[in-house]
Specification:
By secondary structure, the chain is α+β, with helices and mostly antiparallel strands. The chain has eight helices and 13 strands. It has helices at about 5-20, 55, 75-80, 105-110, 130-135, 195-205, 210-220, 235-240; strands at about 35-40, 45, 65, 90-95, 115-120, 125-130, 135-140, 145-150, 170-175, 185, 255-260, 265-275, 280-290.
Length: about 300
């Protein structure tokens, strides 16, 4: 788990009730143990926070489960992996709410066989994955270009015939590629406690606020999303290349320089030259980057 305090609350409110209710006969002398260690017959369960380096190296293991991978301390996760070195099983499970593309759980999912949940439309027979932007909303290209509910009301609509689909119908996971390990994307649209109307209301509330929109995309839809201006792409950096006039900066080819960028609608750029243990600012620029990552 990401942190020790979260570990304590998670074990106390979720694991302990489960053990005493469903696995009481497996507990040693009927005791729940402490918040970090449980004994079930001949097996031990260790619950650790990723922010504690000492906890990560304390116990050998056969199975490693990382919960909320994207929120764990990535510096200590390799220590947890090393706990499997002397096991013949070496079983790993990674679970997380996604955050940014290419990092954390998304990076591992992209490297897996990428299983996605597919449902069959009972009207036209088309198999499809469910997507909020496609099965619930459609682009209003003729007027504003906004995402609006598909004709027929807020609900799950087939992308082919537009018929209403039962999101809880029997479906199957289908892999997109041959790879090991196995990865599963759990669609938020099939979550039994989330109504489509509730998701639509959250979308209306969040769509004009990048921070709220990111929370909606990550937590409610289970999709990667970076708020506009929250990160820098390689394409953005490449398109910033130009023949700048540096005659007054006193920068030589052999100088060691660093750059800092405050992102947003404008890129505020500072270039500094390393001088011993000091950093001398030599360039300050304000750049406007358009949607194609080009300087305006």
């Amino acid at each position: 788990l990401p942190k020790q305090k979260l570990r304590d609350a998670y074990v106390d409110t979720r694991i302990n009730p489960l053990l005493t209710t469903c696995y009481f006969d497996m507990l040693k002398n009927g005791e729940k143990g402490n918040l970090s260690l449980k004994k079930l017959k001949h097996a031990y369960l260790h619950f650790v926070g990723s922010n504690s380096e000492t906890e990560m190296v304390s116990h050998p293991a056969d199975q490693l489960i990382i919960d909320e991978l994207d929120f764990c301390d990535s510096r200590n996760l390799p220590l947890a992996e090393n706990r499997l070195d002397h096991s013949n099983l070496k079983h790993r499970i990674y679970v997380s709410t996604p955050t940014l593309a290419g990092v954390g759980i998304d990076r591992r999912y992209v490297g897996s066989d990428k299983k996605k949940w597919h449902l069959k439309c009972e009207h036209c027979g088309k198999w499809q994955t469910l997507n909020f932007f496609g099965n619930v909303l459609m682009k209003d290209d003729d007027i504003t270009g906004d995402w609006i509910p598909i004709t027929g009301g807020v609900g799950i609509h087939c992308v082919k015939c537009g018929g209403i689909m039962n999101r809880f119908a029997v479906g199957e996971y289908i892999a997109e590629q041959k790879s090991d390990p196995s990865g599963y994307h759990i669609p938020a649209l099939c979550h039994p406690t989330k109504s489509i109307k509730e998701l639509y209301k959250k979308w209306i509330y969040s769509k004009d606020n990048e921070y709220e929109k990111q929370i909606f995309m990550n937590n409610d839809l289970g999709e990667c999303y970076a708020a506009e201006g929250s990160n820098i792409s390689q394409n953005s950096l490449d398109n910033c290349k130009a023949n700048y006039n540096l005659s007054n900066t006193h920068i030589n080819v052999s100088d060691r320089c660093v750059i800092g960028i405050d992102v947003g609608k404008y890129f505020h750029v500072i270039v500094g030259r390393v001088e011993g243990k000091k950093l001398r600012v030599v360039v300050v620029k304000k750049l406007l980057i358009d949607d194609d990552a080009s300087i305006v």
